[in-house]
Structure formats: structure tokens, C-alpha cells
Amino acid sequence: MTLTIATSLDDILAGLAQGARPIAGGTDLVVGSRQGKGSLPDTLIAIDRVAELNTIDVGADATRIGSGVTHARLMTDTTVVEQFTSIADASALVGSPATRNVGTLGGNVMNGSPAMDTGAPLVVLGAKAELASTSGTRTIGLDELWTGPGQTSANEDELCVALVIPNRPTASGSAYVRLEYRRAMEIAIVGAAASVEFDGDAIGAVNVALTAVAPTILEVTGLNGIVGSALDDATLAQVAEIASEQAAPISDLRASDKYRRHTIGVMARRAVDAAARRAAGEQIAVPVNRALGVGAVQ
Amino acid sequence: MSTPSNRTLNAVELQVNGVAYPVAIETSRNLSGVLRDEVGLTGTKEGCDDCECGACMVLLDGQPINSCSYLAVQAQGREITTIEGLADGDDLHPLQRNILAMGGVQCGFCTPGMLMSATALLERNPTPTEDEIKIGLSGNLCRCTGYAKILDSVAATAVEIS
Ligand SMILES: Cc1cc2nc3c(=O)[nH]c(=O)nc-3n(C[C@H](O)[C@H](O)[C@H](O)COP(=O)(O)OP(=O)(O)OC[C@H]3O[C@@H](n4cnc5c(N)ncnc54)[C@H](O)[C@@H]3O)c2cc1C
Ligand code: FES
Ligand code: FES
């Protein structure tokens, strides 16, 4: 077994072309191997020191967040906190300070767990993944990227270079809420992200995506009915009902399918509520779970 | 299954507490094991060995990591700080002094990891609230003290140094 520390993007792509697997923070890869989920790949290339992967670039239409940006940075970076707040909400909940220091956005996305916390926020924000190999670069939607639990459609030699997120319209906000049994070192029981845009006093656009209730992150459909409505209790109740209906959860050690189906509705409603309040200009600190005392048992 | 190539040794230099240690290690070795068995610094503990307990916490370029689940070869070229790096000769670090004085150590197994997390926290935020201390130490489990005295000693240190 070998590990090479890459110093440039070209180094990484050349390594992947020869069969090496990338390692960023190793908080999924190395931990998984220690828990016996799989053995470490024979050839590793460490991608955590490549500057091109560690940038957050605000462009005219979209913002590129490098795949190597850590959760610790995502939860405090001004652009992310102000514009793409739901990602900051999610990153602030990941593991412990140690997990967040080395764990990356790219690792979270490419590990492909249905319980990944940044996934639902990225979906409601309309993010796309930029994948690169020695043969070129392509940008694909996340629905195309995630194909099943722990599975992506990326080719073995492709690196996720960045997540590209359209810049936000005015009067919009986003939030991520997760149900957890403890306040740290936890994996989502279920989670929900929402993005809300106001058109005057009415909802102009709304997107909701769900964590840990399907083989991949699930984007909720059929919310058009509430566009044009005011954001009141009846509207939020409708969101909860639709989310619970569309969830396809499993039962495992952590929760039963029935409990997940019920609580995902509650999380979806809270996420929409928090996103809407942010869209209306209210400052709700990151993460929503702590600021509003929702999600975890306090 | 380990093939002969799995046992290839890498000549690596690890920078620990300001001292360069040349070691010859397999790629799959975790940092905590290398610190304890090759470098010879046994202050860093291994509790769970899979990122649950925080006994293995060390600082990498000043930030906490779970060294049980970090490949030692990936730490090349970075500054590693272990519990042995906290005291200045015989003078204990204020965190060490306070946790001892305030009864925050019982069996002591979690203590090195706790103090490494606390060191990074106070470096980042010299005036943490109680909640910020709890979040800063949230990756460290203690099975003895019930945490209160540990939290108190970190709060007391913050007051002392700020
Ligand atoms: C104690 C603990 C708590 C955790 N809590 C949470 C949590 O609350 N929420 C959560 O979502 N996750 C959690 N995780 C999982 C993990 O920390 C995150 O998924 C993290 O973002 C993974 O990033 P990494 O850089 O460490 O990935 P790595 O382990 O380095 O990589 C993960 C996988 O992705 C591949 N990969 C990495 N980067 C790229 C890239 N740029 N392009 C292509 N492939 C790539 C690797 O080859 C590997 O297969 C936790 C983990 C631990 C150990
Ligand atoms: S030994 Fe590393 S977290 Fe428990
Ligand atoms: S003092 Fe024994 S585990 Fe903390």
C-alpha cells in the first residue's frame, strides 16, 4: 500500500488515471477501514494540500466551492454563511471539531451516504458537481451523481473538483435541520433542507430535500401548490404532509421507518419555516438546530 | 489480506512538538500508533480506535484531529502537537495545572485528549462561553468525571489566560 501527497491538481488527475484513490480528510475512508467496512485502497493520493481545491470563488452567476474546503471553514466562511446558509447549518453539525477540521465537502458528497448532511442543502440550492479527469471536465447534477447508498456515477479516474452553486436571488433564504439524539458525534436520524424565495408577501419559490429517508438524498416534488401562498401554519402543515408521504425510509438500529416517516415531516416544516424567516431578513445563527433548539433533545 | 507490498516501509519524518522524528512505517499505520510505538510518546491514548472517543486527540498544525483514524504518512510536513508538548519543562500548562487542581482527572485516560481539544479551543477562542466549551470538547468522552470539573477547569483557564 502506498500514499502520495499531491501538490497540484495535475498530480491528482495523473494519479487517479493510474488507479489511485483520493483521500481528503480520511474521516470516511480511514474510519470505515478501522470499523471493518472495507479495506483501504492499495494506492492512495492525498488531495488535501492542493490549493485549487481549497478556494471559494464568487463569480457573476455562480459560486464555486472547492471540494477540499473543510466543514470547519464552511460553517464560518462569510459567503457560505450569508448566501448558502443551509450548507453552513449542515457543516456545523458534522461530528466534532476534529471531524470538521479535516472532513471536506468533496468527501461528504463523494462518499455518497444517504445520511450526508451537506447533500440536502446542496440539492435545494441547485448545486452541480464539477468532475475532472485527465480526459476533461464535466459538470453534472447531483441527481445524476448519486446513484445509491455509497455509490456515485463518477468514473474511477474522476475527481470532484468543486460544487458549483447558482448565486442567490434577493429575498431568499435556506436552512438545514436534522433530527439527532445527541448534540455531537451523531449521524442524522433524518434531516431536511429548504430554500425559500419570497415574491412580495407570498412564497415565490420553495425547494425541499431530505436526508436519510431514501437510498440517496431525496428532492421533494409537488410543492408547486404552495407557491403563491402566504407562509402560515396551513402551508407548513402541507409541507410536512408532502415530505412524509414522499419519504421512503428504512428501519434500522437508529430508528424505525414509521418514526422516520413522521419526523421527516416535522424537520421539513421546521426547515421551511427557518428558511422563510431568513428570507424575510431575520438573523438566525448557524446552525439552526442550536439557534432554534430544534432537532436535538436539549 | 496483506501482500508483501502492503508491508513496504516508508521513510517518513514526523515533526512532533517541534522535534523531527525519522520513522520507517507502513502506509496503513495510524498516527496514534506511530506516536506511541515508533516515536515513543505514549501520552496520546487509544480508546476506541475508530473515531468515537477522542482519547487519541492531537493537534495537526494547531487543530485537533483523531490520530487513531489518521494515516501517519499523511501527517508528513505538518506540525504535530501531543500532550507532551503542552508543559514548558517542569512548568505545567495552565490547563494541566487547573484540571489537576480542580479534580477534573480521575482515571486520566481521557485527559490528554481533552486537553488537546481544550488547547485548540482556547487558541481559537480565548473567551469561550460554557456552550462553546462544550462544543469544543464534544469529540471527547470521559467515563469517570461527569464532565463538570473538566468544563470548570477549562473555563478557569480561559479566565486566567485572557
Ligand atoms: C466521528 C465522525 C462523525 C461524523 N459525523 C458526520 C455527520 O454528522 N454528518 C455527515 O454528513 N458526515 C459525518 N461523518 C462522515 C465524514 O466526516 C464526512 O462525510 C466528511 O465530509 C468526509 O470528508 P473527508 O474529506 O474526510 O472524506 P474522505 O474520507 O477522505 O473520503 C471519502 C470518500 O470520498 C472520496 N473522495 C474524497 N474527496 C474526493 C474528491 N474530491 N473527488 C472524488 N472522490 C473523493 C474518497 O476516495 C472516499 O471514497 C462523520 C465521520 C466521523 C468519523
Ligand atoms: S481512539 Fe481515536 S477516537 Fe477513540
Ligand atoms: S477521567 Fe477517566 S475517562 Fe475521563
Mean pLDDT of chain B: 95
Cα Rg of chain B: 16 Å
Q: CATH architecture of the largest domain in chain B, please? A: Roll
Kindly provide the name of the CATH class of the largest domain in chain B. Alpha Beta
Fraction of helical residues of chain A = 25-40%
Number of domains of chain B: 2
The CATH architecture category of the domain at 172-287 in chain A equals: 2-Layer Sandwich
- Shape by Cα distribution of chain A: globular
- Main sheet record of chain B: 5 strands, mixed
Look at the structure and give the CATH class of the domain at 172-287 in chain A: Alpha Beta
* Bound ligands, named by name, code or SMILES: flavin-adenine dinucleotide, FE2/S2 (inorganic) cluster
Major sheet of chain A: size, sense and barrel closure? 5 strands, antiparallel
Rounded to an integer, what's the Rg of chain A over CA atoms? 19 Å
N-to-C terminal Cα separation of chain B, in Å? 53 Å
Number of DSSP strands of chain B?
5
Describe the structure.
The complex is a heterodimer of chains A (298) and B (162). Chain A has twelve helices and 14 strands. Chain A has a five-stranded antiparallel sheet. A four-stranded antiparallel sheet of chain A has the order 11-12-13-14. In chain A, strands 1-3-2 form a three-stranded parallel sheet, covered by helices on one side. Helices cover 32% and strands 25% of the residues of chain A. In chain A, helix 10 (233-246) crosses helix 11 (257-279). Chain A has a domain at 172-287: Enolase-like, domain 1 (2-Layer Sandwich). The N and C termini of chain A lie far apart (45 Å). Chain A has 298 residues and is an alpha+beta fold. The radius of gyration of chain A is 19 Å and the shape is globular. Chain B has five helices and five strands. By secondary structure, chain B is of the alpha+beta class. Chain B folds into two domains: 10-85, Beta-grasp domain (Ubiquitin-like (UB roll), Roll); 94-161, DNA polymerase, domain 1, CATH 1.10.150. The mean pLDDT of chain B is 95. The N and C termini of chain B lie far apart (53 Å). The A-B interface holds A 1-3, 5, 23, 26-27, 30-31, 34-35, 40, 42, 44, 46, 48, 72, 95-99, 101-102, 183-185 and B 5-6, 8, 10, 26-28, 30, 49-52, 54, 57, 60, 63-66, 68-71, 73-74, 76-77, 117, 120-121, 134-136, 138-140. The structure holds flavin-adenine dinucleotide and FE2/S2 (inorganic) cluster (FES) (2 copies). One FE2/S2 (inorganic) cluster (FES) binds next to loops of chain B. Residues 105-110, 142-145 of chain B line the site of one FE2/S2 (inorganic) cluster.
